[in-house]
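Cast an eye over this sequence plus C-alpha cells and explain the fold to me:
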Amino acid sequence: MRVLVVEDERVLADAIATGLRREALAVDVAYDGAGALERAGVNEYDVIVLDRDLPRVHGDDVCKQLVTQRYPARIIMLTAAGELDDKVEGLSIGADDYLAKPFAFAELIARVRALGRRAAAPLPPVLERAGITFDPARREVARDGRAIELTRKEFAVLEVLLSADGAVVSSEQLLEKAWDEHIDPFTNVVRVTMMTLRKKLGDPPVIETVPGVGYRL
C-alpha cells in the first residue's frame, strides 16, 4: 500500500512517515498543499493522510480538488480541528475519515489500513493463497502453518502479490506500491527482494516469473 502524508509540521510529518514505514507501507511526504497536489499528479496513492491547515494550498482545497478529479485515493484528515462541526465539514467536502490530534498511532494505522482496503477491490482481512496465510494487522505470515519472518519490504511485496489474486504484477507496479518516490526505477531492488522472499517462503516455489511481464503468486 502506498500512502502520502501531508503535514506542514515537519517533525510530526516525518514521525508519521517513519511509523507507517515500520508497518511495511510505502510512504511519501509533502509539507504543504501544493506539494501534495504535485505528488498526487505523478504518483498513485491508496491513502492520503491530510492535515487541513496547510500553507500554499489549504488542506480543504487539496481535498476538494482531488475529489473533483476523481482521484482514487482515500483521504483521512488528521488535524487539530477536532470539534464536531469541524469533522462534519471535513467529511462533507470529501474526506473519507477524520482523526483529531492528538491521536493514538495504533488507531491511525488501523484507519489507514481500513481505508486502503476500501481504495482497492474488497479483500478479506486475512489473505490466503497457495498455503500462505497473510495477516497485515498482526504482521504475521505463515506457509502451511509454519511462521515466516519477513523484512518490511518483503512483507509489502508479498501483500501486493497476494492482493493481485493470481494476476501478474509487473516490476513497475511493485515499485509503485511497495517503495516510495525516492527509489531508482532502474535499480534491481525488486529482483533482489523477490529472491529473498522466495527463499523464505520455501519449496515448492509459489512465486512465478512471467518473462518480460512480471511476477505471479
Observations:
- The CA atoms of residues 6 and 118 lie 20 Å apart.
- The longest strand covers residues 74-79.
- The helical segments are 10-22, 33-42, 59-68, 84-92, 105-119, 152-163, 171-178, 189-201.
- The mean pLDDT is 90.
